[in-house]
From TrEMBL:
<dbReference type="InterPro" id="IPR053863">
    <property type="entry name" value="Glyoxy/Ble-like_N"/>
</dbReference>
<dbReference type="InterPro" id="IPR029068">
    <property type="entry name" value="Glyas_Bleomycin-R_OHBP_Dase"/>
</dbReference>
<protein>
    <recommendedName>
        <fullName>VOC domain-containing protein</fullName>
    </recommendedName>
</protein>
<dbReference type="InterPro" id="IPR037523">
    <property type="entry name" value="VOC_core"/>
</dbReference>
<feature type="domain" description="VOC">
    <location>
        <begin position="3"/>
        <end position="127"/>
    </location>
</feature>
<dbReference type="Pfam" id="PF22677">
    <property type="entry name" value="Ble-like_N"/>
</dbReference>
Length: 133
């Protein structure tokens, strides 16, 4: 059986966060979503649980990272083309996110990144399939 990945992230406003990621084309699993959580589906094996900060605190014994000062993680999602990388990142910035770092262009691989409404960094990357195989 393939392993599944569930990423849990604190957010300040579930409704605004859900609208933000819906605008980027992500879907949600309503079975695991409520007023404190949005279960965002990346693919069949990967889900991001966007948890209202108070709900996120139920799962931790320490504090939530201050994303204005530090990075706890970098999340990277793939795109089907260079154009899709630009489209996703430009849409995120237009929806209230912010640009993060400079674009990375290595010819066979291209990526950009944005910070979401809560300051979490999302990288979007395309890699030439010929370079992988």
């Amino acid at each position: 059986m393939s392993r599944m990945l569930f990423v849990n992230m604190p957010v300040k406003n579930i409704d605004a966060t859900r609208k933000f990621f819906d605008g980027l084309g992500f879907g949600f699993n309503e079975t695991f979503s409520d007023e404190n959580c949005a279960s965002m589906v990346i693919n069949d094996l990967t889900t991001v649980m966007l948890l209202q900060e108070a709900r996120f605190r139920d799962f931790i014994a320490d504090d939530i990272c201050d994303t204005s000062k530090a990075r706890e993680t970098l999340l990277c999602i793939s795109a089907d083309s260079r154009e899709e990388v630009d489209s996703i990142v430009d849409t995120a910035i237009g929806a209230g996110g912010s640009a993060w770092m400079e674009a990375q262009d290595q010819g066979f691989m291209y990526g950009r990144a944005f910070r979401d409404l809560d300051g979490h960094v999302w990288e979007v990357m395309w890699m030439d399939p010929a370079a992988v195989g």
